[in-house]
DNA sequence: GTGTTTGCAAAGTGTTTGCAATTTA
DNA sequence: TAAATTGCAAACACTTTGCAAACAC
């Protein structure tokens, strides 16, 4: 593994998004685009930045998450009333959400199998289809 | 049509939920359980009560919506960050959400066709599966 | 009467915004 | 140095809470 990979990946993503590679955005991008599929809230990401000794204000984290989302680098998932999650996996897939731990995980398309699309009125188009399997812990 | 039907329906629902049929709850239940499938936010329901000249505080609307939900009379749908919808259709079904108008509609099960359930770890159980078809207006 | 419910206003949570100071190109 | 970005604090939208007054049984 090349130890410069995270840096290059982050820089590339930020520049492709037409954004300036500031210290803050680079730090956040390195945390987000580390190669794994991640699901973060603004608060989680802010704390992670803090933990890695990068001082970033929460407002900047929100800004960056939205800018990355607008650029197609992230996808916003609505599962929890009053809390937004951002997913680094932007390919088509579904989610499993644990209502106890509030943890969000990906499910591959073939784990669900949607056979039909609903009829949509002529003046609308399907933006996307969210499938959220809500689970609870037993006991 | 029996004009006493809405009253009896509301009373029955409230009493089955183990709640006292107060003026406020009766008014809200009549608005909600009118025989149609409804999707309301607290704010919408509050305004409807107001429009029908029943003075109810917003806090009471929130209380009632949660009490009805706990009693299984309503189902809460998370589609919009920072806004909760409540659905009077408690049978298994899916939703279509218009991101422009923020209107939420039901879709019957057979309009989608879920063929597979995902594997769940042994210490969890599926609570429910939410399918939300997100549409936008063309043009 | 006793316990429940209501309504208000205050507090809470997550998010957005205005703007001066800072940083980037 | 011109434009973009940051960070703070204030504002925001929605929801919940504490508690005295009102109500249901």
What features would you describe in this structure?
2 copies of one chain form a homodimer. Chain A is α+β, with helices and mostly antiparallel strands and 139 residues long. Chain A is built from 4 helices and 6 strands. Chain A has a 3-stranded antiparallel beta sheet with strand order 1-3-2. A 3-stranded mixed beta sheet of chain A has the order 5-4-6, with no helix packed on it. In chain A, helix 1 crosses helix 2 (23-32) and helix 3 crosses helix 4 (58-70). The radius of gyration of chain A is 17 Å and the shape is globular. The first copy, chain A, starts with a helix and ends with a strand. Strand 6 (124-137) of chain A pairs antiparallel with strand 6 (124-137) of chain B, so a sheet runs across the interface. Chain A binds a DNA duplex (25 and 25 nucleotides) through helix 2 and helix 4.
Radius of gyration of chain A, in angstroms, nearest whole number: 17 Å
Largest interface: A-B, 41 and 41 residues
Helix content of chain A: 25-40%
Largest sheet of chain A: 3 strands, antiparallel
The oligomeric state is: homodimer
Could you tell me the strand content of chain A as a percent range?
25-35%
- Number of extended strands of chain A: 6
Inertia-based shape of chain A: globular
Strand order of the largest sheet of chain A: 1-3-2
> How would you spell out the order of helices and strands of chain A?
HHEHHEEEEE
SS-based structural class of chain A?
A: alpha+beta
Summed up, the helix count of chain A is 4
